[in-house]
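Support case: user asked for a sample of complex input and structure output to validate their parser. Sending the pair below.
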Amino acid sequence: MIRALYRTQDGVFQADLPPEKFAQALKDERGLLWVDFVDTPPDMDAPILLDTFGFHPLAVDDALQETHVPKVDDWYQYVYIVLLAVEFDSPAVDLKALELDVFLGRNYIVTHHDRPISAVERVWWSCLRNERHTQGGADHLLYALVDELVAQFMPVVEKIDVAIDLIEDQIFGRPDSATLAQIFKLKRVVLDLRRVISPMREVLNRLARDDYPMIDARDRVYFRDVYDHLVRLHDINESLRDLIGGSLDTYLSVINNNMNDVMKRLTAITTLFMPISFLAGFFGMNFFQPAIPLDIWTGLPAFVITLLVMIAAPTLAFWWMRRSRWV
Amino acid sequence: MIRALYRTQDGVFQADLPPEKFAQALKDERGLLWVDFVDTPPDMDAPILLDTFGFHPLAVDDALQETHVPKVDDWYQYVYIVLLAVEFDSPAVDLKALELDVFLGRNYIVTHHDRPISAVERVWWSCLRNERHTQGGADHLLYALVDELVAQFMPVVEKIDVAIDLIEDQIFGRPDSATLAQIFKLKRVVLDLRRVISPMREVLNRLARDDYPMIDARDRVYFRDVYDHLVRLHDINESLRDLIGGSLDTYLSVINNNMNDVMKRLTAITTLFMPISFLAGFFGMNFFQPAIPLDIWTGLPAFVITLLVMIAAPTLAFWWMRRSRWV
Amino acid sequence: MIRALYRTQDGVFQADLPPEKFAQALKDERGLLWVDFVDTPPDMDAPILLDTFGFHPLAVDDALQETHVPKVDDWYQYVYIVLLAVEFDSPAVDLKALELDVFLGRNYIVTHHDRPISAVERVWWSCLRNERHTQGGADHLLYALVDELVAQFMPVVEKIDVAIDLIEDQIFGRPDSATLAQIFKLKRVVLDLRRVISPMREVLNRLARDDYPMIDARDRVYFRDVYDHLVRLHDINESLRDLIGGSLDTYLSVINNNMNDVMKRLTAITTLFMPISFLAGFFGMNFFQPAIPLDIWTGLPAFVITLLVMIAAPTLAFWWMRRSRWV
Amino acid sequence: MIRALYRTQDGVFQADLPPEKFAQALKDERGLLWVDFVDTPPDMDAPILLDTFGFHPLAVDDALQETHVPKVDDWYQYVYIVLLAVEFDSPAVDLKALELDVFLGRNYIVTHHDRPISAVERVWWSCLRNERHTQGGADHLLYALVDELVAQFMPVVEKIDVAIDLIEDQIFGRPDSATLAQIFKLKRVVLDLRRVISPMREVLNRLARDDYPMIDARDRVYFRDVYDHLVRLHDINESLRDLIGGSLDTYLSVINNNMNDVMKRLTAITTLFMPISFLAGFFGMNFFQPAIPLDIWTGLPAFVITLLVMIAAPTLAFWWMRRSRWV
Amino acid sequence: MIRALYRTQDGVFQADLPPEKFAQALKDERGLLWVDFVDTPPDMDAPILLDTFGFHPLAVDDALQETHVPKVDDWYQYVYIVLLAVEFDSPAVDLKALELDVFLGRNYIVTHHDRPISAVERVWWSCLRNERHTQGGADHLLYALVDELVAQFMPVVEKIDVAIDLIEDQIFGRPDSATLAQIFKLKRVVLDLRRVISPMREVLNRLARDDYPMIDARDRVYFRDVYDHLVRLHDINESLRDLIGGSLDTYLSVINNNMNDVMKRLTAITTLFMPISFLAGFFGMNFFQPAIPLDIWTGLPAFVITLLVMIAAPTLAFWWMRRSRWV
């Protein structure tokens, strides 16, 4: 799907400019054209990007392929920017990164993405609802897009934080193999997030610091603000990484601790009963005659009591082990 | 709550300047105005910050939101500084970081915080008690604030140090699961502290090194002094981090060591008794006749002695294991 | 084998130039000569490289020996470049790096390799099929070679990714010693790949950034494109390294977890049966007379049932353990 | 204690200059004054430092408090240097760092320390014994002090090296919990030493590289020599850190190895005896009649032999286990 | 031993110049003097170095003491270089580093070492055999020395590589405590080698890059070649370090794996036999009368079969365990 927003230099607003009129709109140096390509086939978008806008074939190639590394390429007449949006599937503990390619010129912004991105939708509809959002120029539109993209990172980070707290409770409570799998899933998400935030931060740093003709020098402070936001996100994410690394260590230590306790009890039991079992066996040997009168030891009441003890002992032991969470 | 201190260029001191008079006070270029916002609602402080002081909306946004990353933003007419105070809850082993936002101009300092910070209180009341503290100008007030904030870090670091020593004693004494939980709590506190100290150090480095019109070049040496203090705190904190990392390793090694000892004893017991228990069972088989006369072995005294041994053996073993801290 | 392609400045194309004519071809400053040495003996290639082309002895030495470290040496009249191709033996999980030495001059490119490299073959035959590929000059031929070489890295990285996914399934399924060996093989491949990609990236960075007289300034953007590709590959490879490191940790944790479970069951069994076995032994002693009448307990039916239980109990236990994957 | 050495420009040497004459001595621009404060109360040394020498209050504060971080502060008229001496308590495996504060001016050097430092004593007495040592000027005295301080590091490093070798022998011999405690003590000493050497190196680097008016440019080569010495010490210390880290790994591996052996033997014993013990029990059941004549198996000689075996078997097993270092 | 080679500016070659003639030879600005000090007492070499050559006392001190850190000190009239040769004792897995101190002037080179170094011998004898080697000047001699020194590193690295392969085979075959000791020895050698290669690389980098009057600018390319060689060696050594680190991890994992298997079997055996042993004991109690006729179970043939089973069972179990490498 190709869709376009166009505001002429006279402030006339046009919501659905057909592709044939892009070339004309570009000639209007004080106008603003936003073209959004959503999941378009290459034979449909490539000609527009190459011929109408005159982008370099290498930049267009990068845009059409999903490369997933945020970067800024300065092509002098325009800037080519790769951004990433994130979607977090909370139950599956899975992070998806969606690529957004942006070409920014003086009087136009071209966005290209294979899957719908909610941040782009929000900015698009806010422009439609209120023309004021397009008055800041192309660089302000880029700022709005970047700001919306980055705003979606915080809830992801917060969900991961909550998940880590749950994990910690499980570890000191009743750790099992599922806890372990959960830890490793979270670890992967945090690593994935890092690979999104870290180059995004570099992109924003360049937009805030470098001198691009299509970004007003006074507007750089907005990109610096988003940059600061990303620095903070990166720090939080690093701290989450530390916490997950710590969780794994805790897990292993708790397991080791438990095993130590189990071994102690096994050794205690064995040490208590093995010697006296041997003694019992010793006097059970046929060297001895059943010579001495010990009627009370071998009467019916003793038998019944013994049976009861034999039923009660393992039952109590089992109950005790359940309570102590051994079995 | 909004409160303000004002010293005119003529040295007249006014303790409770109402917000309406801020604009006039700002015109007095050699005066000194300190406005402190404590937990004010946004609709109350935002207008003052934006209109009366004329701060940039992005800076005001940063101040009103709690962002928790110390930084210095140079807005040419003023500097926006984010600082952090710490509060350590010793029994719960929990570190709280409190944000303090500062706007520093030539003749004013504006502080904004959501929760009361003891360091701010102390500087405020020392100004009230003794006007001399306001004679150094706005940059001296900033120095006083920063110095008080940083002075509160050392007791925290010392408490952590004491806690680590206790932990080490426990590990080589009687390590258990609570020791482990304590180690991980301390680890988190040290990581948290690091994320406070490290950017604070960078902030002080910039205040001591960079050229800001509102900071007298001769006063930079004071900020360098606080910077040196923070470098030292950072080093101590890193060493605490090493020690805690080492504590966890020690814990695991001691546990492993213990388990090894337990296993050796279990194996020893089993090796001693299993063969002779088998022999006892062998001669207990009914292939043999109770043919030979061995009356002394099967008499009443032997029975009594056997009973006593059967009671004494596990009792002694249990007492020995207690003494050796097995069970 | 020595083979040569030659296009004169007039566009005349000659596919198999004999070595004797190299010197003459080099005088044609607007022509293009590509000489490819494949597994030639030193006494055959060294004279051509040293005398005909006039390369420095140190550079020729580097080319004739296999050194396996990508680099760029600027010899002013020409550039000496070491590149690496990779071949991945998927079943054996083994990565082979093949060295390709390139001398790039204004009107010639000399490639030297000991083993056939498929990327070189592809570029060679595309030049033969279509003379258009030689019209871009020597630097475009270098770009074509580099692009083909780097294009072969991605399938390797993808195969490793698939292998890691399989490993993770095995770990949470049924981990054994072969899983471990596989993890370590993958680890080594990823380390090897890193040692190829990392310096290759540096080579491309220099080709894209530095000013060489034999590389047209407008063509540097192509090398930057390959450089971006390598940056991405490096990032993916680093993430694979993290995942493999995580796999080893998972493996150890799962094994530890399993051992803990096994120990718990051993302890449970021992705790349940040792006390009652002792009791049985106690009453088996010859102190007691078979005095009381308990005929029903010692009749034939009881014997048969006991036998059946003795056969059934271990059979069921074994079946249960099989199902639980203990044995 | 305050003590002072004074050499006038005419070479007249005075060993015990009273504090009242310091001011006059300082006016002698080609003389040399060394004032040494040893454990003086603040109300005694502060006035001299602040008023007589005119040092900045911040520098004097740093000197009077023990801060333990080597650094160089350039106060233009003088340099304030914090140095560290070390004392190693070999039996307790404990490293003490002693702070030495130095103020270096053109014609004076002021040293301040809370505890006696042997390096300072040695330089002091060599000056007293031989006036030649004071002829090099204040910077040469500083060099002599620094050189002596650093010379004391090497024996410490060597003692640690010897201790590590002992540890390694213990690990492959008979590792126990004390070995572990020793490893962690050594680890802490090496970390402490690193925190001394690393900033000391930086101090010497600055003294050797930067341009201070009170250090003759030709004398910088001496500080560079001490700097090289510290670089080497740092390298050796890092290698010791690696070795100790390796020792801990070895310890854990050896323990794990031992535990594995123990487990194998436990399993071997259990596997050998459990089945036949069951068989013995099986035929000990009262289903069977003592029907068949097997007199030779149940005679007195068999009983005696059995008794002897029952005594000999565990004795030999115990002796064997002792020899194999199990118990 | 002091020995000297001297080539006059007229190309006259003198093999054994006595020390008395050094001063005169040095005046010959286009000649070349090589003096080699091998294990000379300080009172013999110090005067020559200090007086005849006029080296700085600090440089001479460094040369006479063994400091073992490669470095380059520029003394303007000459360069002082510390180099390291290595000797690898393959059976003992021990690396020895031999220090070679070099003073390089325009028309002389002075080498000083405490132990004979084979690389120096080789260069010395090649100079004696063929005067051509001395025609390149002092810097070429230095190149020849450095090249020979570095050429000896590769066989060491290759031996370590072979040793690591052997280790890996042992680990997946039959790991024991000796394997562990071998891993740690190799780890130490690789660390030692790193501490040789890394500063050597830096020395060569400086010789190849910096501007020294006694090194012809055109000859720097030779030092760059050795530098590239050292970069490669460093990379290979780092990869060996990774492999050894991986070996230790493998070792621990394999041991853990084995222990897990052993525990499973112990638990299996215990689970199979403990219940039925209890049953046997139960019916062995004297509550029961040997009342029912079961003659066939208690006859002589049954006894013989039982005896055979009792001998066969542990024998077979032991054989099986041997085959499975348990004992």
